[in-house]
Design a protein that fits this description.
This protein has 271 residues and is α/β, with parallel strands linked by helices. The protein contains nine helices and twelve strands. Strands 2-1-3-8-7-6 form a six-stranded mixed sheet, with helices on both faces. The chain has a four-stranded antiparallel sheet with strand order 10-11-9-12. Helix 2 packs parallel to helix 7.
Amino acid sequence: MPDKETVSGFGLVIIGNEILDGRVQDSHFVTLRDLLKTRHHDFRYAQTLPDIPEIIDAQLRWCMSCDEPFFCCGGIGTTPDDHTRHCAARVNGVGLELHPEGVRILEEKFGARATDTRMRLVDFPAGADLIPNPYNQVPGFRIGRGHYLPGFPEMATPMMEWVLDQWFQPGAEKFACKLVLPGAREADLVEIMESFIAAHPGLSFSSLPRFVDGGTEVHLGISGSEADVQAGTDALTTLLTQSGVPFQTPAGTGNPSIDASDRASTSSGRS
């Protein structure tokens, strides 16, 4: 086994008409977000695609052009609406072939019921590596930067965990700080935000406006290394003070706290 790879983040592709038309509620997004957070990796993007080969091909090519590895959930079965295996082979410039170890696993699992149709479950892009499936032993596969998993969450979740722990180093611990600006409006803060972001390009920055009883407020959040967040917090509070903009911590007035981002308070998003 080669040394584990060091990466900063991951992407996610979810495939299935049943998700887009509302027959099934997706859970892969939340699952991967939480798995990545505990391992200090960034979640770079998420896409949900229909069972249309041309669209899948185009999006997989885009994913492969990015620096981050990605997970792709759904469409690796053998029914007519399962196109992912073929698309993954096509965009990687290879054909499909029965994976020898996959064949052995299925023969052991199914015995006399290991029909040609069932064997299509391991008809993978040439050169792919297997991803074990502890739920029912039918594997997924890895080729290039893509990790292709079943659409069933009970299978995909432990397979994601295995991939992350088997092939990738955990990331560096991230820290975060959030400030609440009571009575503020985003439009009045743009120059402050632009100045801060230009001076601290290594930090992740967010601004979330909220409507609250009696008016508005803005939540400003930053995250990154502990030293960067500490320096960024000092600089941001100085900018706000100099501009006459009052601020609080989420718990109320007081000095801003720097927390490990896995434990830090987070905003619920835009209203």
